Amino acid sequence: MMIEARGLVRTFKTKRGPVQAVQGVDLDVADGEIVGFLGPNGAGKTTTLRMLATLITPTSGTATVAGCDLAKDPVGVRRGIGYVPQSGSTLPEAIAGDEVVDHARLYGVPKAKAAADGQRLFEELDLPGLWRRQCKTLSGGQRRRLDIVMGLIHEPKLIFLDEPTTGLDPQARANLWDHIRGLRDRGATIFLTTHYLDEADALCDRILVIDHGKIVASGTPEALKQQVSGDAVRLSLADAAQAPAASKIVRELDGAVEVETDGDVVGFRIPRGGSVLPGLLRSIDAEGIELHGVEVHRPTLDDVFLTMTGRSLRDEKSSAPAAADEKQEAMA
Amino acid sequence: MTVLRETWIVFHRAMRLSLRNPMWSILMLSQPLMYLFLFGPLLKPITAQISQGATTNAYQVFIPGLIVQLGMFGAMFVGFGLIAEYRAGVIEADRVTPASRIALMAGRVLRDVVVLVAQSVLLLLAALPLGLRAPWGGVLVSLVIVALLGATFASLSYSVALITKSEDALAPLLNGIAMPLLLLSGILLPMQIGPTWLQRLSDISPLKHVVNGVRALFRGEIGSSSSLWGLFWVVLLTVIGLAVGARTFRKESA
User: Fold this and answer.
1) Is the pLDDT of residue A330 over 60?
2) pLDDT at residue number B44
3) Is the Cβ–Cβ distance between A13 and A169 less than 8 Å?
4) Could A90 and B89 be called an inter-chain contact, meaning their C-beta atoms sit closer than 8 Å?
5) Which residues pair with residue A81 across a beta bridge?
6) A331 shares contact with chain B (CB less than 8 Å)
7) Confidence of residue A137 (pLDDT cuts 50, 70, 90)
8) Domain A229-298 maps to which CATH number in 3.30.70.100, 3.90.550.10, 3.40.50.2000, 3.40.50.720?
9) Does the predicted interface ipTM exceed a cut of 0.90?
10) Average pLDDT, chain B
11) Which sequence spans correspond to the domains of chain B?
12) Residue A320: what pLDDT?
């Protein structure tokens, strides 16, 4: 196991009293996995990551990270991990290559090796010719990749990435995903946080869904989606008056759940929606109900989140106060 | 020793950044230079009174105050640089390395000390054509005092910066401390020429004793009680400053 955490709790003191940002997190990450921590802002993702990376002390709980005990041997943990923070890791005025070499030397890497490894990583991470450039002259995507070089320079076996693609354009994101997969192919274990569903879906072998400081679900993206009961089907009717009749037909289908009518739309969930559809359409036609359209949606991780928490991940307003606390903590 | 090696790495990085952008160091030096050229000449006519007949050289009285001021103010505002590094994520990146927390502070403090001593030497050289005369030994010990003062104020500034993490909190706090220290330390004029109540009040400021010590050293009184008291106070301040700084760096890194 690369990470083994039990009962991690972190409480922050705020002006409104103590806030439990992380409320008893257990997690296991095996060697060579890409594991994603998925949750809305303020769910406790960054706080958990910072605890595992020795940046803040857990209020209670234990963890072994990269083979070392978090409480007894934080220096050992630091040696084994690379941490790519959300906030960047280089000074705008500094020269990119200098920052990389100095960072490596703090890990005890000799200067010449640090420079050689750093330049090789610049090539691998698509930063050719930028070794002597001032950090502030790099684009957003380039700076993110520079941060990743900083996190990789001492060849850690475990890499933490905090919201790696936040603020990047779609092309830069897709590009970074390729690089992250590349890291795993070289044998590293990756633990990342994200609030993007597509990112977790595209990148992770396994996902831990976190909400209000607790892990509410975990599994492969596919397994999580299967926990949601079936595909979402929406029937758009030509006449809203026919909705009750259509709803009646749908309710008689085997396995149909969450049948809801909203004006001229009848929605429901059913396993293998695509194969049920032909029969359903015939029955609807036989009743003389006219359809405008039919949609079938495979479950998404957002559906998973909705099923687990009763809220949509996209609906971030509900968690805004907690997000403020996490931000406050990120500063502390 | 690893701590020393790590301190050197942090120092080297900080020094390189200071040399790449020397404007800040030059600006910090311009203030005492302005005092030297625009305020110093005013002291000449009253030299006899303020030095109580011990010397007739105004700059022997004035320069010690200026280099103490440089040591104090030059180092006091280094916290702003640390906040900039914090915002850029550099402090966090430093903290995830296995490097000693003490080294992360000590390397930066060392850079500040080197910059301050260089500025002080430039200031002394600028004062030579104006008529500054002082014995070598006294000047060397004075530079050590400036270095220690710089280390003290730099560590304290870094501590406050790391705790507040905000320029908006740091600026009024530092100004609030700097003004009374400046006025009560006899940096511009010796406190001896003031009324008794002001002299007693100024006795509270350890910096007054440091300034008096440096003035004694500039007169060549290396073993005098004034210079020994000055040394005593500056060493005590340094121990306190570094201890506070080290504690903050350890604690704030968890």
Assistant:
1) no
2) 75
3) no
4) yes
5) A158
6) yes
7) very high
8) 3.30.70.100
9) no
10) 88
11) 2-251
12) 41
User: B84 contacts in A (CB within 8 Å)?
Assistant: 91
CATH topology of domain A3-225+311-331: Rossmann fold (3.40.50)
Name the helix (H) or strand (E) containing A131.
Answer: none
Size of interface A-B (CB pairs under 8 A): 75
- Fill in the amino acid letter for B173: L
Chain B contacts in chain A segment 158-187 (CB below 8 A): none
Q: Which residues numbered 4-23 in B keep a CB inside 8 Å of some CB on A?
A: 6, 9-10, 12-13, 16-17, 20-21
pLDDT in the model for residue A107: 96
Tokens representing B187 are: 């940096």
Cβ atoms < 10 Å from Cβ of B26? 12
At B93-143, the pLDDT tens digits run 999 999 999 999 999 999 999 999 999 999 999 998 888 888 899 999 999
Give the Å distances, CA to CA, from B160 to A219, A329, B18, B172, B189.
45, 18, 21, 12, 30
- The pLDDT of residue B53: 55
Distance CA A141, CA B171 (A): 34
Judge whether B88 is closer than 8 Å to chain A, CB to CB.
yes
A260 φ/ψ angles, rounded to the nearest 5 degrees = -135, 145
pLDDT bucket at A63, cuts 50 / 70 / 90: very high
| Nearest by Cα to A53 from A28, A34, A70 | A70
**What is the spatial distance between Cα B187 and Cα A196, in angstroms, rounded to a whole number?**
59
CB B16 within 8 A of CB A93: no
Query: Could B93 and A85 be called an inter-chain contact, meaning their C-beta atoms sit closer than 8 Å?
Result: yes
Looking at per-residue pLDDT, the higher value among B133 and B16 belongs to B16
In this complex, do B97 and A102 lie within 8 Å of one another by their Cβ atoms? no
Determine, for residues B89 and A87 on separate chains, whether the beta-carbon distance falls below 8 Å.
yes
Q: Compute the distance between CA of residue A98 and CA of residue A5 in angstroms, rounded to an integer.
A: 35
Neighbours of A332 (CB within 10 A): 12
Contact B245, B105 (CB under 8 A): yes
Residue A314: band (very low, low, confident or very high) from pLDDT cuts 50, 70, 90: low
Give kind and range of the element (H or E) at residue B229: helix B225-251
Nearest CA distance, B38 vs chain A (angstrom): 34
Q: Is the pLDDT of residue A67 over 90?
A: yes
H or E element, residue A192: strand A189-194
**Per-residue pLDDT, A120:** 94
Identify the closest residue of chain A to B81 by CA–CA distance: A91
* Rounded Cα gap, residues B86 and B90, in angstroms: 6
